[in-house]
Amino acid sequence: MIEMIDVKKTYPNGVIAINGLNVKIKPGEFVYVVGPSGAGKSTFIKMMYREEKPTSGNILVNGVSLPSIRNSKVPLFRRNIGMVFQDFKLLQTFTVYENVAFAMEVIEKEPEEIKKRVMEVLDLVGIKHKARMLPSELSGGEQQRVAIARSIVNDPKVVIADEPTGNLDPETSWEIMNIFEEINNRGTTLVMATHNRDIVNNIKRRVIAIESGKIVRDEHRGDYGYEI
Amino acid sequence: MKFRTLLRHFRESFKNIGRNGWMTFASVSAVTVTLTLVGVFLVLMMNLNHIAGNVEKDVEVRAHIDNAANDDDIKAIGKKITEMSGIETVIFSPKDEELTNLIDDLGDNGDAFKPFEQDNPLRDVYIIKTKSPQDVIKVAKKIEGFEYIQSVKYGQGYVEKLFSFVNIARNIGIVLIVGLLFTAMFLISNTIKITIVARRKEIEIMRLVGATNNFIRWPFFLEGLWLGILGSIVPIGLISVLYYNIYKYVAPQITFKFIDFLPASPFIYQISAILIVIGAVIGIWGSLMSVRKFLKV
């Protein structure tokens, strides 16, 4: 599903973010990516959806070799993965419904199918009743639900989440995690970078810890492992 | 691209105009202000050009024929002139007619010439108009070389000055219009650029969820088109109403020989078409140029 082979990433300013990293994530897995700030977590995640290119090494996602695809083909690749961010990244001038529908419009789905499917996923994340509101009229947790709905609306095999609970209070974070578990239970691979100790320690899953651009720990049902 | 998607882009472009209300307002205002300026200048310049054309058209070549020429010679000369390139009309005016015209033109003083009716000192004349007034000098020079041509008159000295004046006026007009157009392009595209920079996040998100560059570009392209067209409505309305009224009420008051205005009927439509095209082109151009910056191509 996702494979990184001898991946190195050096930024133009000389910072080495990832330094010889190998990892394999199987279909249907639920993986936490943890580690201190500046350890390379973000770069690791960004390389998975081809926002950053590795300096050397290879990355395979859904069988696609990411370093070799052209910039213009990146959007096509991204249609097969779902993405969730700390800052939600919703289109502020679009309604909840339009935000989710947009991800289907770009792949030219039938209008009827879009209508049906969007309402379905909005129902799944529990925000159907606010479909006609703008993101600015919603709370953080609600906005994140919309973002999650958007990430899964096209049934991707992989969902990548970068600190999805970073801007949310503990209670809302749990609600969001329930949705992620539900998504993972349906067979979707989930990779989630997080700083949330409680979540990692309570919902036990595979934990990959990154420090100084390397994987320092990879446990099947691991702990967060860092003191806050 | 599927037809359905094209419809989607149209729908989306209209929605965006509403979604970005103030930004739309800013862009449309910029288009409105500059197009009004461009339009007013165009109207002025095109009318000046028209007047200049009137003045030029009045220029003609008068070829005086030697008395030694017989009827056949005169006919031959006429044929030769007609066959020259760039000639519009050739009118033969016999010397009797010339004298009558002269006497009529001078009014009461014309009587002084009456005695000459018996022994007309004037010559038969060919009056030649060229298709392009600026050819007059060239044509005159050529005819001068023909047999039995006694002299050629076209307002020597005066005509050259007139033409050089008209040419300078035209060039200044063109420079002004082009300058104004560039200013308009700069101003409008800058305004649109600012409104789109505000939407760079929007473009980034679209790319994140898998929209191709073309998919992102289309609504922006159409939005630019609508902005341009919306912005040209006020200038077109304003200029049309003003020009129509000037043509109807002011123009008839001016009786000076060469000064008349371009007829309102086709002219207003021409100006409107020009303005709407300029608006649309600049709108599209500004919008696409700005989006380009945020699409990693």
Automatic annotation (TrEMBL), chain A:
Keywords carried by this UniProt record: ATP-binding, Cell cycle, Cell division, Cell membrane, Membrane, Nucleotide-binding, Transport
Domain of life from the UniProt record: Bacteria
Topology with respect to the bilayer: Peripheral membrane protein
InterPro entries the UniProt entry points to: AAA+_ATPase, ABC_transporter-like_ATP-bd, ABC_transporter-like_CS, ABC_transpr_LolD-like, Cell_div_FtsE, P-loop_NTPase
Localization in the cell: Cell membrane
Recorded GO CC terms: plasma membrane
Record-annotated ABC transporter domain positions: 2-228
Biological processes per GO annotation: cell division
Major localization class: membrane
GO terms of molecular function: ATP binding; ATP hydrolysis activity; transmembrane transporter activity
Annotated function: Part of the ABC transporter FtsEX involved in cellular division.
Assigned protein family: Belongs to the ABC transporter superfamily.
SUBUNIT field: Homodimer. Forms a membrane-associated complex with FtsX.
Protein name: Cell division ATP-binding protein FtsE
Naturally occurring in which organism (per UniProt): Peribacillus butanolivorans
Gene name of the record: ftsE
